Structures are given as structure tokens and as C-alpha cells.
Amino acid sequence: MRAAPLAGGVSGPDVLRPLLDTVLAALRAGAEDRGGPLPGGGPAAVAARVNGLRPVLPEHGTGPDEALRAVAYALAAGAADPAHPLCAAHLHTPPLALAVAADLAASALNPSMDSWDQAPAASALETLVTAALATEVFPTAPRPDALVTTGGTESNQLALLLARERHGTVQTVVGTHAHHSFHRAAWLLGLPRPVTVPAPRGTLDPAALDETLTALPGPLLVAATAGTTDAGLIDPLPAIADRCAAHGADLHVDAAYGGPVLFSDTHRPLLTGLDRARTVTVDLHKLGWQPAAAGLLAVRGATDLAVLGHTADYLNADDDTDAGLPDLLGRSLRTTRRPDVVKTAVTLRALGRTGLGALVDACMAHARHLADLVEKTPALELYAPPTLTTVLFRPYGAPDTAVAETRRTLLAEGRAVLGRATADGRLWLKATLLNPHATPGDLEEIITLVEGSTPR
Ligand SMILES: *Cc1c(COP(=O)(O)O)cnc(C)c1O
């Protein structure tokens, strides 16, 4: 059993230290050998290298050092690494080192958030942190609360579930630009398909929403977006909240992307009206710089969450709860649940509001700078000045097939990871800038690479 010591307890840290050295050395070697934002050669080349890890289950193990070195190296050498400034396709964040270090504590202690007797301090910490974050979202609500989720998909699904429990069969209304998770959530919950409102300019048009709400029988749940996945646009929240109030519709805001803008004094006004929602989705694994998962569903009133209450005698027997053991099972639909709030607690405390706000501001400035560079490049066309940290652009006059090919060429060569988005009926390249440490030179390189890779 000498190959399998445990991570916890008094001796765990001493066992971990040399293993961490091995992992860290492998991460470094892998990043050096990769040399760019992603490995070159495309899927076949990457799979061929990973296949070198066979046999997956050898008859006799190779031991912790060899296994950690081999697998961590393969992972790093073959990563699309969001810490590289040219890895900017998705809302795929470069995690902060301090958050990753905090995650080690969470893994070593392995609290499980389904009962107090598995997570005494972690559950108290979650209560503290979720209450504080809920107050950021709903500053004037008397008793806001927030659930920790795996991300926007789960948060949006919970928002639909809570609406269904308030109203019975509820009709969800979304813009055509809303996240795909609403359609899956309605499907999963047995709710009618969401009605979509056209969003020709990429955001919900309050007049079109008004028409839709007038035509539909209730009960209704409008899901607006603060930070669209494709273009980083924010729906006009105050006008939407007015229309919802006039029609008696509930409002949910999917601020998976834009929510952390609340930390920025400069940019917070973009989210005016957010606190008029009944529920708000926020991801801290996008803007927020947490390793996944770090999702939240903030609710204006904690009583909305009572419907999630659930009893399992081995986790929260009534007499245990009556005797004062906190009942955690109703804070998620999951049972075993990682203490994802630990890394968030460390990040909030270490950086403070101004520290996080400065990271938001830096990424916003990068997006503006990249948009300026695009505008100054005659061969490129800018979709629109960025609202958040997403810049859509394309080679002037190129057919969509050439735009798609440019993206794939950069991927195959391992030179840049850019995303794609359809807007205005055309295909665009998408740079989602979440790396606060990107330099002007990095942004210039994005332009140079795209110019040099466009088929003629
Ligand atoms: C990313 C995103 C989601 C989904 O969040 P996950 O964390 O990937 O589950 C939902 N809505 C929007 C607007 C997003 O950008």
C-alpha cells in the first residue's frame, strides 16, 4: 500500500509536497514543449500522442511519480491553454493561480456538501460566501440567497424549475440569442418549448417582447441575457423588467458571462436593472477566473428555494435537523457535491472588490483595443464595438467558408484558438478576451495571424 498514501490528515501535506513538485514540473515541461496556445497537428496528432499512455490499466501500476509525470505532461502538452493570450475562443477562463491552489485544499479535505457531518466548515463557508455574493446581485433585497451550481446550464435549469414550482406549467420566453441551455432545461423539465423573440440586433427588443407577452397566456418566465455567449451583448434590462412587470411575467437574467462586471466600479452601470430579476445566473468560471466549476444561481428571496427541500434519512433526518445540524440537501439537486466555494472564498478575500474589478476592467480594455486594431486594418471588418470582452470580426468580403477555414487553419497549426459566431446572417471570427495579462503585442498578433491565414 506504500504507493497509495492519503492526502488528508497531519501527514497528508508531507506526502503531497513531492507529488506536487512532480505535477508542477510536468505542467511546465508540457507547456514548454507545446510552445503555443494549443498543440499543432489537429485531433489525430493529439490523439496519437495521448494513445501513448496505453495500457490504461496495466496489470502492475507504474507508481505515482511516473503516472503523474506521464499524464500531467500529456495533458499540458496537448492543452488548449487559456493562460496563453492567443487562446481566446470561448468563455474558457485562465484560472488564477491562487484559486487553483485553493482547489488543492478542497480536494485534499474532500468535504461533500450534501450533509453537515461531511462538511462542517465548508458548509458554513458556503453559507457565508453565497450570502455575500447574493447581496452583490440583489443589494436591496431583504434576504437574497444563492445556490452553488456547476455553471450557467445548471443555474438556468434551476431557474426554470423554481418558476415551474411557483406557477405550475410556465411558458419560458427567450430571445433568439439566448443560451441553448434554456431549450434543454424546458425539455428536461417537461415544460413547453421556449417561445423565441427575434433579436435582430443581437439583444432582446422590448417592443417585440411586449408583443409576445401580450399574445401569450401566462404564467410566463422571461429569460434575458447579460452577456450573450456569441457577442457579449447585454439585453436592455430596465426596459425588459418594465415589460415583465406590466405583464405579470417573472424575470430571470442569465448573467453567466456578464455578472462579474458587478465588481467593476467603472462598468457596473452596464448591469443596471439586474436586481429587478427574480433569479440571476452568474458564472465565476468565465469572468471570475475560477477553475470550473464555479456557478451560482442568485435568488432575490431565499424563500423561493424552499421547494428544493428534500429529506434522506442518512443525510438530514428530521431529528438531526431539529437538534441543530444544518440541512444542506435542499441547496442543490446533486447529492455528493464538491466544495467549489472554497476557491471562490480565497479569490474574493485575496483580491477584494477592487482587485477583481481591475481584472474585469483590464479585459474590457483589451477588447476595446482589439476592436480598434480591427478597425485600423483595411482587410478586416468589425461587427460592432464590444460591450463586454468579445470582439467579432472577419476578413472583408470573405465568404463564410473562408472565415471557417481561417479558424480551422489556426487551430491545426497550433497558432491561435479563435471562436466562431453567426451574426447579421454571416459567420464571424470571435475573440473572447478573458486573459487580463494579455499585452497589446498579443492583440496585434491575433490580427497578423488572421490576415496571414485567410485563404484568397
Ligand atoms: C456559458 C454560458 C452558459 C452556460 O454556462 P456553463 O457554465 O457552461 O454551464 C449559459 N448562459 C450564458 C449566457 C453563457 O455564456
TrEMBL record:
Transmembrane domains' residue ranges: none
Cofactor(s) demanded: pyridoxal 5'-phosphate
The UniProt record lists the keyword Flavoprotein: no
Keyword Lyase: yes
Keywords: Decarboxylase, Lyase, Pyridoxal phosphate
Gene3D superfamilies in UniProt: Aspartate Aminotransferase, domain 1, Type I PLP-dependent aspartate aminotransferase-like (Major domain)
Family: Belongs to the group II decarboxylase family.
PANTHER family to which the protein is assigned, alphabetical: CYSTEINE SULFINIC ACID DECARBOXYLASE (PTHR45677:SF8), GLUTAMATE DECARBOXYLASE-RELATED (PTHR45677)
Name of the molecule in the record: Pyridoxal phosphate-dependent decarboxylase family protein
